[in-house]
Write a structure and sequence with these properties.
mainly alpha, two-stranded antiparallel sheet
């Protein structure tokens, strides 16, 4: 039995579960006119989270940084999928090659979904905060592609859930517990610097999260007057 060590910091964990809640809410509220304002607000906050996750990929702890992700080449992704099918554990505390690729895909899709949502307009009841600033053809393009990106986010999340269940049930890997407690089998790898549970990292993440989410909300809602 591998001993566990700190891997996921509080901001990665909070972000993970907040994204789950946010995506579920967006899927439910997207077709409900009574929830449209809340749908738009959550979309803006998701855009802020994308900004935070990009920043955190450079200033966060070791396993949150993109530099710790395996290089997402077709070969590394294929090898990772083959190991998954054979139920072979990849001996890394952080993301596997396919897991790291999934993070990139999800960040990109959530960002595009939020961006197209904020640029959309139905010319009757709803206009996103960016719609008045863009030419008509871009607003029309955003309005057409927003539901497509939303469905792609849902498909990606469902695939992620299936992969987690595969790891948890068939491979007996504590992925869900790890994303709750932050502790995972270490496989002899170093914890990294800064320590994911350190006070300085908690404060750094708080400042970054506040600036990214607060700044996004302030620019789109307060400055643009949406």
């Amino acid at each position: 039995m591998q001993s566990k060590q700190p891997v996921w910091d509080i901001w990665v964990r909070l972000g993970h579960w907040s994204i789950v809640a946010g995506i579920v809410f967006q899927q439910i509220s997207g077709e409900n006119l009574d929830l449209m304002d809340a749908h738009a607000t959550v979309g803006i906050l998701l855009a802020g989270w994308v900004m935070f996750r990009l920043v955190w990929g450079f200033i966060g702890p070791h396993y949150a940084r993109f530099s710790s992700f395996p290089i997402p080449t077709p070969q590394t992704a294929l090898t990772s999928v083959q190991k998954l099918i054979r139920k072979e554990t990849e001996h890394t505390p952080g993301h596997s090659a396919i897991g790291g690729l999934a993070v990139y895909v999800l960040i990109g899709l959530i960002g595009l979904t939020a961006l197209t949502g904020m640029a959309s307009s139905d010319d009757i009841l709803f206009a996103g905060p960016l719609a008045p600033l863009l030419p008509g053809f871009l607003v029309n393009l955003a309005s057409l592609t927003h539901p497509v990106f939303s469905k792609l986010v849902l498909i990606t999340v469902l695939l992620h859930v299936l992969a987690v269940l595969w790891h948890t049930v068939l491979m007996k890997e504590p992925l869900i517990q790890g994303m709750i407690t932050g502790l995972k089998p270490g496989f002899g790898a170093p914890v990294g610097t800064p320590h994911p549970f350190s006070t300085i990292l908690v404060l750094r993440g708080f400042v970054a999260m506040t600036l990214c989410l607060g700044g996004t909300y302030a620019v789109l809602v307060l400055f643009l007057g949406w």
